[in-house]
Amino acid sequence: MTRTLPKYVNGYLDRHGKPRHYVRLRGRKKMPLPGLPWSREFMEAYDAALNQSAPVIVIGASRSPPGTVAEAVARYLGSATFTNNFKPATQAMRRAVLNRFRNEHGDKRIGKLEPQYVSRLVSRLRPYAQRNMLKTLRGSRLSPLARGVRSPARLNPAPSSARSGCSPCPTPALRSACGP
């Protein structure tokens, strides 16, 4: 009867017929394990591999020149800040926004991008896309790019003559107190 392998362990026979076993944790390099599964030597190496804080692999960072938008986006998407602080739906939205931004502007140097340039890029988008882009840029390592960029206008702003100098009141009772 064959025993199953411990969690995160992959095993196979190499071309010489020797059994090979590796611990494969998400975001880390695979680590070889000595000996046969469940042996004392194997389990000691397995425990050490699980408890070791191995450096996290940043996908795409090695293919991007340092200091570019592409490198900053790759590092942010691989960071614990991104993976631990947001729910999957937020991660998916922000990943899509950042990948689109990286595809269009990945070769540009972050230090050379001015907030005015980013403001022009954001102003070409629809209001909901503007809001998503600004939230994503401000929450990421690209936040210096979003500094000074104004939030998008409301979808249906009232004409300036109708505003009468104050902000809109949230409840009907307050609206009647404000006047026409």
Word description of this protein:
- With 180 residues, this protein is mainly α.
- Among the domains are: 9-51; 69-146.
- 46% of the residues lie in helices and 7% in strands.
- It contains 9 helices and 3 strands.
- It has helices at 40-51, 69-77, 80-85, 88-105, 115-123, 127-139, 143-146, 160-163, 172-178, and strands at residues 9-13, 19-23, 31-33.
- The chain has a 3-stranded antiparallel β-sheet, with helices on one face.
- Helix 4 packs across helix 6 (127-139).
- The longest helix has 18 residues, at 88-105.
- The chain is elongated and about 70 Å long.
- The model is unreliable at 154-164 (pLDDT under 50).
Top keywords for this entry?
mainly alpha; elongated; 180 residues; three-stranded antiparallel sheet; 46% helix
Secondary-structure blueprint:
Layout (H helix, E strand, L loop, with lengths): L8 E5 L5 E5 L7 E3 L6 H12 L17 H9 L2 H6 L2 H18 L9 H9 L3 H13 L3 H4 L13 H4 L8 H7 L2
Antiparallel strand pairs: 1-2, 2-3
Helix pairs in contact: 2-4, 4-6
Summarize the structure.
This protein has 9 helices and 3 strands; from the N terminus they run βββααααααααα. With 180 residues, it is mostly helical. Among the domains are: 9-51; 69-146.
The helical percent reads 40-55%
β-strand percent reads 5-15%
The parts where pLDDT drops under 50 for at least 5 residues are 154-164
Mean pLDDT: 80
**Helical element count?**
9
Query: Got a strand count?
Result: 3
Structural class computed from helices and strand pairing? mainly alpha
